[in-house]
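Notes from hallway chat w/ T.B., transcribed later so I don't forget. T.B. wanted the structure written out for a chain they're using in a teaching module, and asked if we could keep both sequence and structure tokens in one place. Agreed to drop them here.
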Amino acid sequence: MLAVADVSVVIPCFNSESTVIRAIESVAFQTCLPAELIVIDDASSDGTVEVVKNFIRSYEGQMAVVLKMCLKNSGPSITRNIGWDMARHSYVAFLDSDDEWRSDKIEIQYRWMASNHQCVLSGHKCLYPGASRADNDDMCFKKVDPWRILVSNPFPTPSVMIKRDVSFRFDTRLKRLEDQLLWAEISLSGHGCYFSPVPMTFVHKKAYGAGGLSASLIKMEIGELMMYKILYEKKYISFFQFLFFEIFSIMKFARRLFTTCFDRCLSLDK
């Protein structure tokens, strides 16, 4: 019989009928099952809800599976917060409806966190389209400095496991980088955040939108600038730190935009 971890898994979904079962099955087939899976449907207009209901009807494992249906579309921050608030177990792990976990992810991450109580949040490397799924035996988790989180997000959301009882939540004012803002708040408040280089999540979408399009990059940049502004308003960073990160962000964005446009011009010339 499989062991059950003291973990609640939260999967927000919206119009995900073609992918959500892959995400759910990657949870159901874990070598160490989470105690519960909470699926939050964000008012889908396709067959997502029926796909999830069919799984619940046919599932005969030890894991409790709960489906929460929202009446209106609210976005991932609100749906993740709803699932987090519904969670009944000591740790919460997040997974997106179009991604999947390696089969031993819960076993590795939960056991490490349960043995290292100074850790409030942990994450790990993810594999993106085109990357090899090669295993890595180096299962170490190392503490991440708060300033590392401010420079760039080391914790993709579907890699994160967090203690349920921390008082922070995803900031619903942001449509992008709300996850990086949350990790930064937790770390800047003095809580331990740890990262493993072992890839235990396969992400089926690119990090900056389809092909790194300019529009997506601009929206990401606006989100990053807003993130630093919120951290300054909440007094996590000083005014001079705020200015530094705003300027750094704009310079980084200009370089990325130039590279994207240059690569697109080269592809058109071929």
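Follow-up for T.B.: The two ends are 57 Å apart (CA to CA). Might be a good example for the class.
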